[in-house]
Write a structure and sequence with these properties.
By secondary structure, this protein is α+β, with helices and mostly antiparallel strands. 51% of the residues lie in helices and 7% in strands. It is built from 8 helices and 4 strands; from the N terminus they run E-H-E-H-E-E-H-H-H-H-H-H. The radius of gyration is 17 Å and the shape is globular.
């Protein structure tokens, strides 16, 4: 299998899932910051120009939830979607859907307001609206996190997604010290060897996923 990813993007979630599953795969970097996801070569793989994409050898799976479900059905390992517990599976999918459809979109408002309108005069309004939404979402996330894993009794893609969002929150200047339970969850995720290997492979600094001093 070939996983197409961009360092630090949400593609880190299936990257972790594949590493947790000890799958045989090649990780190919497609840096969004350089526009590599819009080249003819990558658009031939995913015409939508989004990451991640997973070439299974027989087909190409795109969109995070679909990729994570494929990994779960293939390996049934930690880090994707739990399939042996219906309630945990539903809980994980519920969270992943909310992350993808709401939380991630609010980040897109902050980083890429041009995706919502070509009228640059309202880009700052879109960005401010995204930050306002994230303030509410982050409080909701803090309320969802307990002493274990967020979707139930095992480590899932929902935990990896929250690790990714924690780093993004720091990047846009959110006060992450206001979310101690979430910070503690991030530390539990960072303690997993597979997660550490992926962070190194993507060329990231593990401290970016932690509270700053």
């Amino acid at each position: 299998m070939i996983l197409y990813y961009s360092s630090g993007a949400c593609s880190i979630v299936p990257h972790i899932a594949l590493e947790e599953a000890d799958s045989e795969f090649e990780a190919r970097r497609v840096p969004i910051v350089d526009g590599a996801n819009q080249t003819p070569e990558y658009l031939a793989i995913n015409p939508n120009g989004r990451l991640p994409a997973l070439d299974t050898g027989t087909t190409v799976v795109t969109e995070n939830i679909a990729v994570l479900t494929y990994i779960a059905l293939t390996s049934r390992a930690a880090g994707s979607v739990p399939l042996d517990d219906r309630e945990a599976s539903a809980r994980c999918m519920q969270l992943l859907s909310w992350f993808a459809s709401s939380v991630h979109i609010a980040f897109a408002q902050v980083w890429r307001p041009e995706r919502f309108t070509d009228d640059s005069s309202v880009h700052s309004v879109i960005q401010d609206g995204g930050k306002e939404l994230l303030e509410g979402y982050f409080k909701e996330i803090e309320g969802l996190v307990g002493d274990g894993w967020v979707a139930g009794g095992s480590f899932t893609a929902a935990d990896s997604y929250l690790l990714c969002f924690f780093r993004w929150g720091r990047r846009i200047g959110m006060e992450m010290h206001a979310f101690p339970k979430w910070a503690a969850l991030s530390e539990r995720v960072l303690g997993r060897p597979a997660v550490q290997r992926v962070i190194v492979r993507e060329g990231l600094d593990i401290e970016q996923f932690r509270l700053s001093d």
